Sequence to fold (517 residues):
Amino acid sequence: FLPQELTEMLEKWWNALLRPANYSYFHIPDDGISGVTNDLYRVVQLYLIAANLCSAADELVLSRDENEEGITYNLAGDEIVVDTFEGVKVWWTHSTKKVGKDDEQREDNKYTLKMYRKNKDFVMNSYLPHVIANAMEHKRQVQELFLFSNRSHRWDCHTFKHPSTFDTLAMDPCVKSRVKSDLQAFMAGQTFFHKVGRAWKRGYLLYGPPGTGKSSMIAAMANYLKYNIYDLELTQVEDNSTLKDLLVNTTSKSIIVIEDIDCSLELSGQRTQQVPSPGENPKAPLESRVTLSGLLNFTDGLWSCCGDERIIIFTTNHFEKLDPALLRPGRMDMHIHMSYCCFETFKVLSANYLSVNSHPLYSSVQSLLEGGVLITPAQVTEFLFGNKDDPDVALEKLISHMKEIAQEDAKKTGKDAELKAVDVLMKENVEKDLKENREEPRKETPESVNEHVDQGKEGKMENGWDVKKENVDILKEIVDTLKENGVSLDKMVDAFAKALPESTFCKQNRLAMALQV
Ligand SMILES: Nc1ncnc2c1ncn2[C@@H]1O[C@H](COP(=O)(O)OP(=O)(O)OP(=O)(O)O)[C@@H](O)[C@H]1O
Fold:
């Protein structure tokens, strides 16, 4: 047995002797200079998997990290895999050597990249950047995502496994493809953003009623981009300075979400730092002192550039309540309206939940939706999920629910039309009365109107005016019967008005009031 040093020296000479003069070699050990882990080693490992080169080898070493789900592949001792990039051929090998003695023995692993000497510069300047880019993309695709939530001044980390994707998201197909293209352009936009001097970030405002898929959209975005999510609960943030600490501690390639921005803070008008009033605990956690200007400093001020490739999303159910400062062009780059179900949306949900792309009942769903029934995707999914094994039952139940909504709406609309008709009638009557009497306008009071009303015994009206109860009851009965027979309220009002003798102000008013009841 020869001492280790001598063996190594002989090995070196032997290799040098064997090495053809026209080849160059790059060694990539797992331990970098001064004992720091060499990240390039892991990058090469990922690249060989991503480029499917490992599968070409006959012998592989498999391992699994307890924190990772997948298996890691490595080339076994004598395996050589060939890669070709832009017509240039290179060879990869992997070797493991035991070094040190007894207790201090450890394994040194390294990849060796062999190339023709004439291609050395190309490998340095083009091939290796290609290896790194591909490995990073692969890492992005397979890595776990995390959801961070803020507790006071720090982030708590949770594994994020939300199944929502752009395929499962039901929404207007045009809007969906616009969002996807925008995200793609953003991801690939590093050079562009830097060229035009803009921070590499993008803001989205998602708005719409509850249950239309705003949270699902955020999850779909995160899964699509492979970005972690920072769910920022503003009411838990003490002040602007804590907000700053939290935001500078978010990483690149992440989505920062502030949900229900209209409810998170009384943002409107608070553009200046609030000062705690005397006696108030300056650290009071419930009374957030984050201001709109503090928040805006992070969305488009200097601090927003502490980290690249970040997306900021605000959501709201009440677009109209937002401060115009938040909506200013250039602040939120894209406003995305998540709306009630349309037929296209329904078809996506139906395909996902029931695995059907067409059904004889689709036409009924379509006409109800196109007839103006407002139902959220969340409501639709309840019917589909609850009956996912029986599309007939699922669709029948959904249709009957939608009919109920339509009837409710018709009732409400009827009431609106009713009130509108009363309004018009009363206005016309006042004008007519004034014209006929050619008097100065007289301010009507309940008492003065009552003077017009017949002297019979009264029923109390909602508006405080008194009218004869039996007349109101009869009128209500007639109105109900006509309604049941599908006579519209406008027609009823017309018919009643005509049926009355060329009447006095008080009689017509009584009709109007009765209808209002
Ligand atoms: N557009 C949609 N596409 C697919 N599923 C949806 C959609 N909208 C809602 N859903 C379903 O309804 C559930 C609730 O929706 P989600 O939480 O995304 O709505 P939201 O608009 O964020 O509601 P809120 O404003 O109350 O937070 C989701 O888990 C999903 O199953």
User: Anything to note?
Assistant: The CA atoms of residues 267 and 292 lie 5 Å apart.
